[in-house]
What we know:
The protein is of the alpha/beta class. The protein has helices at about 5-10, 10-15, 20-30, 40-50, 85-95, 115-120, 130-145, 170-175, 190-210, and strands spanning about 30-35, 55-60, 100-105, 125, 150-155, 155-165, 220-225, 230-235.
Amino acid sequence: MNLNxxxxxxxxxxxxxxxxxxxxxxKLKAASVLVSRCGGVGGTAACELAAAGVGRIVLAHGGDLRxxxxxxxxxxxxxxxxxxRVQQAAERLRALNPHIRVETVPENxxxxxxxxxxxxxxxxxxxxxxFEERFAMNRAAxxxxxxxxxxxxxxxxxxxxxxxxxxxxxxxxxxxVRPPDWKRQFPVFGAVAGMIGSLGAMxxxxxxxxxxxxxxxxxxxxxxxxxxSRILSTRRNPGCRECGxxxxxxxxxxxxxxxx
Length: 260
């Protein structure tokens, strides 16, 4: 996956980052990422992945754009109300970076499609609002040993972690059951969603290009009301219903690092 002169010109400033360089850019060009939902969190993550030059981005999101989406879904426009969100997002990303491929899946992740979609990519970014979707993605990612970046937010709080099946805690280790009081609709500022989406994109870029220190077995939590943050350590649950059966893969092994 060599870079052409147009790509070198577009990515010039990030090629100067220590530990990344042209080798890292080639790895991004060869990589594929599935983004589950391209709303406030996932849309920002997808935008940053496209800008960085991830070669193939698959967007999965069902439904049409509503007025209440526009405070946070930056890949959409007012003129697109009532039309497909995922198609609008794809068009925006293609306009931003013509050197990449953007594919669309006009449906949300579920038990029926998660395994098929995740099997076809190198990494997953989970930005879904429903735990049913998150659990389906987690189950498929664990079964396929695919790394998954988990991003979530509520009001002014947000969190992010990176999951490596067989090495780190998976989602089910941390959240064994669906929280009983969770609702589909919750308070959102677009700035909070965008902030954690950008962090999720950076986690994916580090994993794909093989540099930096990802949030492995570390849960980053930030409260933007008080602008305070903390990092919690996590660990695998040997009795986890999803990943408990996997052999332990130590950090630093090729499989544990999520390298193809």
